[in-house]
Amino acid sequence: MKIGYDAKRIFHNTTGLGNYSRDLVRIMAHYYPDNQYYLYNPKNPKVKRLKIQPNMLVKQPESFFFKAFPSLWRSKFILKDLQRDNIEIFHGLSAELPAGIEKTPVKAVVTIHDLIFQRFPELYKPIDRKIYYKKFLSAVQNATQVVAISEQTKNDIIQFGNLAPEQIKVIYQGCHQVFKESYSSDEKQEVKQKYNLPDEYILNVGTLEPRKNALSIVQAIKDTNYPLVLVGRKTPYARHIEKYILENHMQEQVIFLEGMSLKELALIYQSARMLVYPSFFEGFGIPIIEALYSKIPVITNKNGVFPEAAGPYSYYINDVNNPAEIRKKIDEVWTNNNDENIRKSYEFVQRFNDDKIASQWMNLYQNVLYRK
């Protein structure tokens, strides 16, 4: 089978969509090596986190014109390349498909991660919302198969895309193998020393933006001795967090980190006492999975998608806007023995293992390929 992928995120994104795309291609190439995987990258790569295997082929625009206008190639004229390469299935990994793909022999699969721009329109510029919604509608209306990364996202597609439930397949995402490895005490100590981390700390991972709600964690640990490590790219929202920290003399209590390797991040997870993840809304919430594989407790939002990712043995907050409730859960997890819940959560997270996810994708591709 020849499968093509929209590889923009693979080679140009270091966070959620990039990790999802790289992991999917990686596990498919590993578990189903007889297929050929074509990675259509619109321009020279900036991110080199995917090890290219013999059954992967990276394709870029060949003409001078499309090298100069890569977005135009990716959005439409890539279709000529797909047909010339005899691609049987093209997979849009981030809610987009080339215009007109439904008029070609190529079967189209599209992954929809979330519709946050519809759920929280105030977080986006009006023109951006219109563009995202137009691309989303075009993709779900013209795909041979629509895939959601969670039941939450499936419900949103039904609501905002006017699709029937039977038109959408849910396939969860996993996480990189690096978070599933066991590391030595020396390795953990080394990363703590490198980043000047305390022996014990609360961890939060994710871009520092309003939706992720990291400020509520900082407010929750005010007047405590709990150290907090915030890992993620800063946006203007981070200034609100820094202002609160300064006003409340918490500079020694809260540590900001970004830019470490995946292995270093895995070591930071495994050295933490817990992950606190009070996000308002996610398509899935991959840091939760990374934490469960790292065998640390998770405190997260009771509403939305989060129980799908965190399972029945994590700790839940009814109101993530309430720092007092977050503080109460932190106290509970910090002081209690959580070994049994950690063990059960680790058993729960095995459903997101690579082999299981790869098998679901292979079944889907085969069904799509032979669909009339």
Task: Give an overview in words.
- With 372 residues, the chain is an alpha/beta fold.
- The protein has 2 domains: 2-174 and 353-369, Glycogen Phosphorylase B (Rossmann fold, 3-Layer(aba) Sandwich), CATH 3.40.50; 177-351, 3-Layer(aba) Sandwich (Rossmann fold), CATH 3.40.50.
- Helix content is 44%, strand content 15%.
- It has 16 helices and 13 strands.
- The strands form 2 sheets. Strands 3-2-1-4-5-6-7 form a 7-stranded parallel beta sheet. It has a 6-stranded parallel beta sheet with strand order 10-9-8-11-12-13, with helices on both faces.
- Helix 8 (185-194) crosses helix 11 (262-270) and helix 9 packs across helix 14.
- The two termini are 17 Å apart.
- The model has no long low-confidence stretch (mean pLDDT 96).
In brief:
This protein has 372 residues and is α/β, with parallel strands linked by helices. The protein is 44% helix and 15% strand.
Radius of gyration, in Å, reads 21 Å
Regarding CATH, which class of the largest domain?
Alpha Beta
How many discrete domains?
2
The N- to C-terminal Cα distance equals: 17 Å
Number of helices: 16
Mean pLDDT: 96
Helix content: 40-55%
Q: Judging by the overall fold, what is the CATH architecture of the largest domain?
A: 3-Layer(aba) Sandwich
Q: What low-confidence regions span 5 or more consecutive residues with pLDDT below 50? A: none
Largest sheet: 7 strands, parallel
Question: Could you say which overall geometry the principal axes of the C-alpha atoms support?
Answer: globular
Q: What is the spatial order of strands in the main beta sheet?
A: 3-2-1-4-5-6-7
Oligomer: single chain
Full CATH superfamily name of the largest domain: Glycogen Phosphorylase B
Assign the CATH topology of the largest domain.
Rossmann fold
What is the H/E order? EHHEEHHEEHHEHEHEHEHEHEHEHEHHH
Count the E strands. 13
Counting helices, strands and paired strands, the structural category is alpha/beta
> How large a portion of the residues is in β-strands, by DSSP E?
5-15%
